[in-house]
């Protein structure tokens, strides 16, 4: 009987374990998209050249996309119930009571995720916070921030079209960086080689 209970527990936990990895991938896609936008803006405005951007990490440049992610997530979840990364992976955020998620709740959720979910992206704090969030998700079926905000997520099946779209977006982003900033990128790689 203990074996049956253990099998039952594993069967119930498997979907949540899968879902937590999909949630993390959605967040990483959002962060990657924002990092790309910030990099393009920095390079296009001449605030930093590619050599400086790639060889001398600047704390503000590294934190800016993560901070912008809080705002993007708050606004898009309030308005659309999803973010670009969540949309690609067919995740939607819903209010337990139904209806639209107020911006204040969505903003609180985004801030709480940034702190309690990913530990401000500071290693090793982020590893600890992600492990605690994962444990809560597996134990209760909700993350602490969704429970506190009265929210739940639904998950759709990610079809081949979404995967092709994701790959296409990545190729487009890479192409823009290579063609728009090719000369700066070559100089940055050469500068990095000289430093090594």
Describe this protein's structure.
- By secondary structure, the protein is mainly alpha-helical.
- Helix content is 76%, strand content 5%.
- It is built from 9 helices and 2 strands, in the order ααααβαααβαα.
- A two-stranded antiparallel ribbon has the order 1-2.
- Helix 1 packs across helix 3, helix 1 crosses helix 6 and helix 3 crosses helix 5.
- The protein is globular, with a radius of gyration of 20 Å.
- About 5% of the residues have low confidence.
Task: Lay out the secondary structure.
Blueprint: H1 2-45, H2 50-55, H3 59-80, H4 84-88, E1 91-95, H5 103-117, H6 125-140, H7 144-149, E2 151-155, H8 160-180, H9 182-195
Offer a concise description of the structure.
With about 200 residues, the chain is mainly alpha-helical. It has helices at about 1-45, 50-55, 60-80, 85-90, 105-115, 125-140, 145-150, 160-180, 180-195; strands at about 90-95, 150-155. It contains nine helices and two strands; from the N terminus they run H-H-H-H-E-H-H-H-E-H-H.
Oligomer: single chain
Strand adjacency order, main sheet: 1-2
The helix count comes to 9
Q: What is the CA-atom radius of gyration, in angstroms?
A: 20 Å
Count of distinct strands: 2
Order of helix and strand elements from N to C terminus: HHHHEHHHEHH
Class derived from helix and strand content: mainly alpha
């Amino acid at each position: 009987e203990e074996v049956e209970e253990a099998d039952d527990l594993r069967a119930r936990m498997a979907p949540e374990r899968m879902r937590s990895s999909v949630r993390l991938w959605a967040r990483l896609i959002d962060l990657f998209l924002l990092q790309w936008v910030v990099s393009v803006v920095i390079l296009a405005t001449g605030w930093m050249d590619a050599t400086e951007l790639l060889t001398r990490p600047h704390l503000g440049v590294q934190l800016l996309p993560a901070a912008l992610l809080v705002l993007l997530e708050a606004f898009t979840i309030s308005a659309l119930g999803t973010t670009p990364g969540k949309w690609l992976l067919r995740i939607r955020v819903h209010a337990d009571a139904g209806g639209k998620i107020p911006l204040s709740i969505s903003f609180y959720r985004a801030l709480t995720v940034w702190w309690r979910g990913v530990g401000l992206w500071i290693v090793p704090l982020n590893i600890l916070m992600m492990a605690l969030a994962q444990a809560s998700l597996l134990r209760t079926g909700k993350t602490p921030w969704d429970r506190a905000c009265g929210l739940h997520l639904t998950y759709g099946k990610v079809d081949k079209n979404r995967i092709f779209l994701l790959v296409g977006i990545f190729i487009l982003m890479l192409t823009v960086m290579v063609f728009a900033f090719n000369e700066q990128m070559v100089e940055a790689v050469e500068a990095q080689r000289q430093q090594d």
